[in-house]
Write a structure and sequence with these properties.
Length: about 160
């Protein structure tokens, strides 16, 4: 029986794709994936956004509201970046679902990948990122790097 791959936020594997040009390599996640099939993705890079870039967050609601058109994603300069992130999430979702993944391991607090907490209206609040929301709506189990032993840093 062929094992289904795991979707993982690229920054957790040491890819420098975060808004500030840094990574968030996580030793526990990297160890867990050593002998497994996985697909590393960054919806923000798939949106065509460069590195570095201004950070973005939710305004007026969370992922569900953004997906239904009732809220927005804005960058720190006040520019509406909703359409771009929706495009990047759609691309990441298509790539992920083609593989029929077993689960996803995503970066907490990210507007794309947050599993339980995201920044909204200037504060860290309960909620999920657009990619996490989209994966869950398609039946994929989602968890964050915080569910793994170890801490940030390469093994």
């Amino acid at each position: 029986m062929k094992k289904a791959p795991i979707i993982v936020s690229a920054c957790l594997l040491g890819k420098r794709c975060r808004y500030n040009g840094e990574d968030r390599a996580h030793a526990g996640v990297i160890r867990f994936l050593r002998r497994k099939k996985y697909l590393a993705v960054c919806p923000e890079k798939l949106a065509g956004w460069g590195v570095p870039r201004p950070p973005v967050e939710f305004h007026g609601g969370g992922a569900r509201e953004v997906a239904s058109g009732g809220a927005t994603i804005k960058d720190s300069r006040g520019r509406n970046r909703t359409a771009g992130l929706m495009k990047g999430v759609a691309r990441a979702l298509r790539r992920a679902l083609k593989l029929d993944p077993s689960e996803a391991i995503l970066k907490e607090k990210s507007p794309s990948c947050g599993v339980k907490r995201v920044y909204r209206d200037g504060k860290l609040k309960r909620g999920q990122g657009l990619f996490a929301y989209s994966l869950r709506r398609n039946g994929v189990k989602v968890r964050s790097e915080e569910s793994f032993a170890g801490r940030s840093g390469k093994p």
